[in-house]
Amino acid sequence: MYKTSMIAKDLVAASSKPLVLSILADGESYGYEIIQKVRELSGGQIEWSDGMLYPVLHRLERDGLIDSQWKKSETGRERKYYSLASEGQKTLIAERQQWLTVHNSLCKLWKLKLVSM
Amino acid sequence: MADGSQQPMQIMETKTRFDVTVAIEKWRLEVAAQPGLTSDNQHELETHLRESVDEFRKRGLNDEESFWLAYRRVGPPHQLSEEFSAADPRRIWRERAFWLALGYFAFQWLGLLCRLVLRSVLLLIPDWVGVYAPLWWSSFWMSTGTSAAFSLAVSVLPFVFLLLLVARGRGETIDFAARCLLRSRRRLILVGTVSVLVLNWLTFMSLRGSTGFALFLAGDSTIHYLVPLAVIAWLMPIQAKPSPAEAVTNS
Question: What is the number of domains present in chain A?
Fold first, then answer.
């Protein structure tokens, strides 16, 4: 019963990019916090294996969409913080458009309220 | 509340004592042995594991439960390696090329060192030993075939021995040496170049007259040692800051 409500693997993978970019648009963050946030936002339905996030983050960094920096946190622990690069900001706008287009198309079919783009 | 949760934990701990620091260290070594993970990746994953462990502890779980739950969430090391490699397959080939070049350099360097040691030992044998040695003995050593075979054995066998040590999992010392040496590109180039020049210079001195100084610089050291060294430094995975000897915060 729990399994059926979980988001399919392909969709989880595809949505990881806009999710990460959107979270970082609110300010810099680190891997653990990003995962916690996604879990919280989706009510636990988007279950990322923790190790999966890092290759995603590193690919986004290689593509120049985000930047990273090792910093000491307030607890004294060193963490790699990620922040949105200006290129990432542009990509996020484009991603947003695309996801909302898909969303609105489905909403029309399901006769649900549309989201303004 | 704190007392209530502490007591059963203490009872359990007396049965089998679970040490999170040891468990994390074991996990770290396992991750370090995986291909396709740079030390920066490893450091990042380790930080993540520690955050997870702390989070579970805060929720009142004991050390062992916290560790295993965090371990499951992060994923088993071999799977991490696969996921990281799939995201960047070029890197795994680059890493392989790096170890190949490092192996070539180690082979050359070890051969140079062993030949030098052998030559020094032979030079220590006083001349009169030769006078008293039987004729067949000295003629055996003087023959080109013997000396060529001997020189080859001295160059090859130590390297084979090194490979056997690594293959049989006895590589802790080698691993430690490699870790120190490969901390940064600058250190690798500095230590590598200096050691090669010193070894080559000593070899050159022991053979004084038989080769020209220009040949020593232009030939041997540059082609066989310094060029591979430059390639290794270029291929070297970017290293993270020193691995943290981070104590697990008891919260």
Answer: 1
